[in-house]
Amino acid sequence: MKILLLGASGSIGTQTIDVINKNPQDFTLVGFSVGYRTRCIGSIIKKHHSVTHVFLRDYTKLSYYKKRYPNVTFIAERDNSISDLIKMCNSEMVVNALVGFSGLLPSITALKLNKKLALANKESLVVGGELINNLLASGHGELYPIDSEHSALWKCLKVDDKNVKKMMLTASGGAFRKLSRDELENVTASDALKHPTWQMGAKITIDCATMINKCFEIIEAGYLYNYPYKKIGVTLHDESYLHSYLIYEDGLMRGELSKPDMRNPIKFALYEGKIPFKTQTFKSLDSLKNLHFHEFNKERYPLVDLAGIVLTKKGTYGAALNRSNEVAVHAFLKGEISFLDIERIVFKCMSEHKNITHPTLEQILKVDNDINLKATNIVNQIKGGKIKW
Ligand code: NAD
Ligand code: MG
């Protein structure tokens, strides 16, 4: 399988390269993209002589790499997009390990070109779930989820997808799971970046601390498996060993258990779900003695419920949710706003959003742009002391 890897310098990107390196008989890396962390380019090209195309965001490094590796085509963000890379590079599968909204257009381009899309970038589905499902229905592209919860659910559904009463996503609770809401007011970005069970990129680690990540994952599950919001639930689980599970009408549960390691779901997606896998059935979560489960408390993590609006009303709510969060997380990481301001900004943008149903891509891009301005304006007001919530 010829693979084009988007986001090669990131957490999922580097682990995808590990999986490719361990299975050279099955995978050939033909191209990749990086952002500003260009140092990995040389080592990837030296190991993978099959690489023909590389995209980098950092234009200042372009001429250096062109001279250094004349047999490889380099393009940079100033003149080309990642969608151009997908069009230029002869791949069968695109692995989308980009973070945030930047992953949407590449996902759409890959599916329009009838590629197999291994998707870590959950924001693609949050923002453009309807567009992506329409492309999957009308074209010959395929989508394989990389997110660990959705990979586990995919396996469970392969064993038995009949009479499912509820699809349950597990959640670690993020860096602040032991703190009450009152204690959240003064936490810092460096506190929030200490995830208890997973090593990940900065944005998703903050998303886990606010739990908007679980909100995104409910939306992702809704679009991937065509499940309504009311049939998707959340269980808090400290160790991240149970990756998610199904509850059937007869009370049986089926889930996937393993040490947390993203290389497992990445591998499963790269093999298009066609390798042997194990799921486990159990009568009750009590039988898993050394693992800890807690009932999910909506009041503690209010952002999670916004998945209900996005999955039931659809339209441009997902775009508003995603962009307001991206702006707020970025400002929080820069120390410009407090941790709880993230959810305040997201709630304000969502409650004032005028939904457009069945949006075109252009309408989604416009909402993304409008919410960017609106949320940035709120951040500036907070910085200037003009907002007292
Ligand atoms: P990361 O920050 O470690 O890496 C992101 C990659 O995207 C980098 O290569 C960066 O250069 C590139 N990038 C960022 N902004 C870009 C832009 N505007 N244009 C082009 N390239 C850009 O992120 P990550 O933790 O690897 O997460 C990637 C995606 O996978 C996210 O959507 C995340 O939610 C999802 N995910 C991650 C994990 C994990 O364990 N890290 C688990 C499940 C899902
Ligand atoms: Mg996940």
Describe the structure concisely.
With 389 residues, the chain is of the alpha/beta class.
Overview of the structural elements:
The chain has 389 residues and is an alpha/beta fold. The chain folds into 3 domains: 2-145, Rossmann fold (3-Layer(aba) Sandwich); 149-295, no CATH class; 315-383, RNA polymerase sigma factor, region 2, helix turn helix motif (Rna Polymerase Sigma Factor, Chain: A), CATH 1.10.1740.10. The chain has 15 helices and 13 strands. The strands form 2 sheets. A 7-stranded parallel β-sheet has the order 4-3-2-1-5-6-7, sandwiched between helices. Helix 6 (123-138) packs antiparallel against helix 13 (317-333) and helix 13 runs parallel beside helix 15. The model has no long low-confidence stretch (mean pLDDT 95). The chain binds nicotinamide-adenine-dinucleotide and magnesium ion. Magnesium ion (MG) binds next to helix 7.
